[in-house]
Structure formats: C-alpha cells, structure tokens
Amino acid sequence: MASPADPRTIADFEATLPGGETVSLADRLGKVLLVVNTASKCGFTPQYAGLEALWRKYRESGFEVVAFPCNQFGGQEPGSADEIASFCEVNFGLSFPLMGKVDVNGDHAAPLWTWLKGEAPGLLGSKSIKWNFTKFLIGRDGKVVRRYAPTDKPEKLEEDIEALL
C-alpha cells in the first residue's frame, strides 16, 4: 500500500460509515466503483434512482456505487446520517452503500476526494467539485478512469461501466 502522502489507488483510503465506523476502501479493490457526492435536497437528487438502477443491474458483475453525502453546496444535505439514509430508502429504495457525510472541497476535504480531484480534474483542469452528484468511475485496479459532471445522468454511464466489467 502506498503511503498516505503518495496515494495511488482507492485502496489507500478509508471512509466513515454513517454510524462513525471507519472502513478501508481496500475491500473494494477488484470492483468497478462509481464514487458520487450526493445531497437529498438538490435538483439532481432524482439521480439517486438512476444510481440505484445501475447498482442493481451490475452489482452481480462486480460493480458498486459508493455515495458520500455532502452539505457544501447550498446546504442541500443538512440532515443527520440517519435522516439521510431514511430519506434515500423511503424515496428511492436505495440499497447501495451510503457513507458518512464529507466535505469534498476546502481545508477539511476528505483525503479520498482530494485524491479523486487530482486524478481526474474537471473542466479546464479545475480541481474543485462544482456541485452535488459529481461522479468518479474507478476501475478494478483502484485507479480513476473518468470524472463525470453533475448533469451526466447515471444511465449515460452504462457503456463506460460495461467496458470495465
């Protein structure tokens, strides 16, 4: 494993579950991942349904959606972990993993998100996340394959996901 100062794959990171437990993302090495920053009061929130559909369609083939709620964009994710999970389950039947709330930009950005932004900068080389539902596709080797804008609907990613499965 690379040192924390020199991360090379998603396996070099940990994430926090909504209850506060820390999990190693090394457990997901070998899977194709779609890492997304989410919010439940956003114009893009209906994308939860598309993310769930991708998860259900491809999970048996080694695909996983990993969602990180974030409240940095217009305060659109103000709830607690339990409130977020309940909202997602009731409104979208979510069954893919929801992680604990994170910052994706700024001094308190989660290390994973700092790495993702560096591996796949946005438009014109921007390293910041511009809004909720920015997506990163990760290959089985744990490396970032592509970054998608919030406006890119989950169903439009199917061809890229299939190519990695």
Structural notes for this entry:
It is a single chain. The chain is of the alpha+beta class and 165 residues long. The chain has one domain (10-164): Glutaredoxin. Helices cover 24% and strands 18% of the residues. The chain is built from 4 helices and 6 strands, in the order βββαβααββα. It has helices at residues 47-58, 81-92, 111-119, 158-164, and strands at 14-16, 22-24, 32-38, 63-69, 135-138, 144-148. Strands 4-3-5-6 form a 4-stranded mixed beta sheet, with helices on one face. It is globular and about 35 Å long. The two termini are 24 Å apart. The relative contact order is 0.21. The model has no long low-confidence stretch (mean pLDDT 91).
In short:
By secondary structure, this protein is α+β, with helices and mostly antiparallel strands.
Topology readout:
Layout: E1 14-16, E2 22-24, E3 32-38, H1 47-58, E4 63-69, H2 81-92, H3 111-119, E5 135-138, E6 144-148, H4 158-164
Parallel strand pairs: 3-4
Antiparallel strand pairs: 1-2, 3-5, 5-6
Number of helical regions: 4
Order of helices and strands: EEEHEHHEEH
Number of strands: 6
CATH superfamily: Glutaredoxin
Secondary-structure content class: alpha+beta
Question: Into how many domains do the coordinates divide?
Answer: 1
Please write the CATH class name.
Answer: Alpha Beta
Largest sheet data: 4 strands, mixed
Strand order of the largest sheet: 4-3-5-6
Query: What is the CATH topology descriptor?
Result: Glutaredoxin
Gap between N and C termini: 24 Å
